[in-house]
Structure formats: C-alpha cells, structure tokens
C-alpha cells in the first residue's frame, strides 16, 4: 500500500473497558487502522481480534524507551500516526499529607510524563505532513484542586497545560491539539457497579466521548477547538 492509499492511523494510549474501548471501536468503524496501547494486553488482544485493522501493543507509558520503541513499531506495522488519543490515567486520592511521594510521582508520570512522551513520539511526522490530531482525555481536576486530589489534580493540570503548550507551538504548523474535559463519572463497568444506585443519566457514556473525539478530528482549520467538556446534563457544576 503506497502513501496515498494507506489507511489513516489512530493510536490510542491507555485502552481500558471504558473510554479506550469506545474510542477504538469508533475509529475502527470510521476506517482507521487502530493501534491500542496498554500496560497489559488482556483486554486489547481480544479487542484487536474483533476489530478490523486493529493491533494491540503492550507499553508502559512512563518508560521513555518503551514509548519510543512502541511508536516506531506502530509506524512500521500500520503507518505514521494521524490521530493520537492520550487516555492513560492514574487516580491517586488523598490530601497532601495522606499521599506518599511515590504515589504522587507515579500519578504525574502516567498523566503528565507519559502524555509528553506520546506526543513527542508523533509530533515529528505530523510536522512533516503539516497535519494530524492530538487529543488528551482530561478531567475536571485539571481546573481545580479539590482537597483530596493533591496528586491527581496537579497531574491533570500539568497535562492540560502541556496540551496548551503543544497547541500553541504546533497548531500554526497544522497539528490540531485538543483536550476533552470529562466532568463526571465515566460509565464503564467498574464505575457502574460502584454507583449501582445511580440512573443511566448519571454517567458520562464512553460512546458519547468517542463522538466528541471524532468530531474534533473533523473540525475545519478556521474553527479549531482546544478544550471541550463532556458533562452529563444533570451534573452540578
């Protein structure tokens, strides 16, 4: 397959049973070759077998060498990445005095450092083609430091500011960088079980988040969005 005929490639970093799976299904259904990156392949291997043009890649997003090697492999096997969606995340909860230094650092490494490594891996090719999309799946914690979110809020705020820096640096070169701020509880199986007393309308539905991501990749250059919110209509904010 030559460069003109190749399928567009979407790399999703952090594929779990919620947003990650929904994003993979949506982009595969739209004709993308999908690279699914996760720490383990217990979920992504069966999903890759189910979806057309999808492959599973084990990757620790906090390991710089592993991230670089994995994206090099994606480029060899599927092609250069046209859409990067960074969905990897780690929640650590507690006030500052309750969070260990190790947990604080790990939270930052997954939410912030990993986002930097993934973006850095795809930016050169996107700059070369003067095109591409980088989408970060963010959180309300990026905007406010709740009492028990000392680690998570600082990590997600850092991720959001990283995204803004990338957008300012590479947007003028044709690379669209954006953030989806998820303001609510994602309706993946674990959360639905934990909040089993809540109605369906309480949850942010992963399929609907994937709709926002797809829409962002289709925006015309004269009206790019940087930050969009995904919030259930009944959520207090």
Describe what is shown at a glance.
This protein is of the alpha/beta class and 237 residues long.
List keywords for this structure.
seven-stranded parallel β-sheet; two-stranded parallel sheet; alpha/beta; 237 residues; globular; 7 helices
Give an overview of the whole structure.
- Helices cover 42% and strands 18% of the residues.
- It is α/β, with parallel strands linked by helices and 237 residues long.
- The strands form two sheets. A seven-stranded parallel sheet has the order 3-2-1-4-5-6-9, sandwiched between helices.
Instruction: Please give the largest β-sheet.
Output: 7 strands, parallel
Question: Which stretches of 5+ consecutive residues score pLDDT under 50?
Answer: none
Instruction: Report the average pLDDT across residues.
Output: 95
The helix/strand series, from N terminus to C terminus, equals EHEHEHEHEHEEHEHE
| Helix residue percentage | 40-55%
Q: Which secondary structure elements does this structure contain, and how are they paired or packed?
A:
Layout: E1 9-13, H1 19-29, E2 33-38, H2 44-50, E3 54-58, H3 64-77, E4 83-86, H4 101-129, E5 133-139, H5 150-170, E6 176-182, E7 185-186, H6 189-194, E8 203-204, H7 206-217, E9 227-230
Parallel strand pairs: 1-2, 1-4, 2-3, 4-5, 5-6, 6-9, 7-8
Helix pairs in contact: 1-7, 3-4, 4-5
């Amino acid at each position: 397959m030559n460069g003109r005929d190749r399928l567009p490639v979407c790399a999703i970093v952090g594929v779990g049973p919620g947003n990650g799976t929904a994003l993979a299904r949506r982009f595969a259904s739209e004709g993308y070759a999908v690279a699914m990156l996760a720490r383990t392949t217990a979920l992504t291997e069966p999903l890759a077998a189910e979806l057309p043009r999808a492959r599973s890649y084990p990757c620790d997003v906090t390991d710089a060498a592993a991230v670089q090697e994995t994206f090099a492999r994606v480029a060899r096997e599927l092609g250069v990445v046209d859409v990067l969606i960074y969905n990897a995340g780690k929640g650590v909860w507690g006030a500052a005095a309750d969070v260990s230094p190790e947990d604080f650092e790990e939270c930052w490494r997954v939410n912030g450092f990993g986002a930097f490594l993934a973006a850095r891996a795809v930016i050169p090719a996107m700059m070369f083609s003067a095109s591409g999309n980088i989408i970060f799946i963010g959180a309300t914690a990026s905007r406010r430091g709740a009492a028990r979110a000392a680690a998570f809020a600082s990590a997600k705020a850092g991720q959001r500011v990283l995204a803004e820096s990338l957008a300012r640096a590479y947007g003028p070169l044709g690379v669209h960088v954006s953030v989806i701020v998820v303001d609510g509880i994602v309706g993946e199986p674990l959360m639905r079980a934990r909040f089993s007393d809540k109605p369906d309308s309480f949850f942010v539905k992963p399929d609907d988040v994937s709709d926002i991501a797809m829409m962002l990749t289709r925006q015309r250059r004269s009206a790019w969005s940087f930050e969009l919110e995904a919030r259930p209509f009944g959520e207090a904010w």
